[in-house]
Design goal:
Order of helices and strands: HEHEHEHEHEHEE
Number of helices: 6
Helix content: 25-40%
Mean pLDDT: 91
CATH topology: Rossmann fold
Strand content: 15-25%
Radius of gyration: 16 Å
CATH class: Alpha Beta
Number of domains: 1
Number of strands: 7
CATH architecture: 3-Layer(aba) Sandwich
Shape: globular
Distance between the termini: 46 Å
Length: 191
């Protein structure tokens, strides 16, 4: 089998998502990493909101919190990051302000137990709270994987998105055409 070419912008949807989010993030923004995982999204957010910004970083796995903490501590100056070893359904327990951006990277923590995955019921509950906390003009980014047991989560998220009022939310869905089981990126803008 031939090796796939390396692309500058469309290598994967993580990079494509960051390309878009760079356009909407601003210094001093309040953002939420709903599934901090290996910390790369948190690091990206921290680099773009600066020390005057605020990040709420959630994960149910303490290992993910530790990995993310280690990854971002090299930043100077370090933004205001609150690490929360709890489920993203608990947003209201920790967040008392409006939010500019929520970012979800659904699925499982790479290189760990693949049986611990995000679940559609908690994800949908979390998304319902996220749209309440989201500022007008704010965004929600959801990267949903379909190539593993959590793939049915994609179907539920897709159905939920179709219930939102098109006069209040603009929603895009992006996927690779030539890649089997590629993740799917949803971007929601609150009008």
């Amino acid at each position: 089998m031939a090796k796939r070419a390396n692309f500058n912008y469309f290598e994967n949807l993580l990079g494509f998502n960051k390309l878009i989010l760079k356009q909407v993030l601003s210094k001093g923004a309040t953002v939420v990493d709903a599934t901090c995982g290996n910390g790369h999204d948190t690091l990206f957010l921290a680099e773009h909101i600066g020390p005057q910004g605020k990040i709420y970083c959630f994960d149910i796995q303490s290992q993910a919190i530790q990995i993310t903490t280690e990854l971002v501590k090299s930043l100077d100056p370090l933004p205001n990051i609150e690490f929360i070893n709890d489920s993203h359904i608990q947003f209201k327990e920790y967040i008392q302000e409006s939010v500019d951006l929520f970012i979800y990277n659904l699925g499982y923590l790479p290189n760990t137990d693949k049986n611990i995955i995000t679940q559609f019921d908690t994800t949908l509950n979390s998304l319902n709270v996220a749209i309440e906390l989201l500022k007008s003009g704010g965004f929600i980014s959801i990267l949903s994987y379909i190539g593993h047991d959590g793939g049915k989560e994609f179907n539920h998220v897709n159905q939920w998105l179709n219930t939102l009022d098109p006069n209040e939310y603009s929603i895009t869905k992006t996927e690779f055409i030539l890649r089997k089981n590629s993740p799917i990126l949803f971007l929601i803008e609150k009008l």
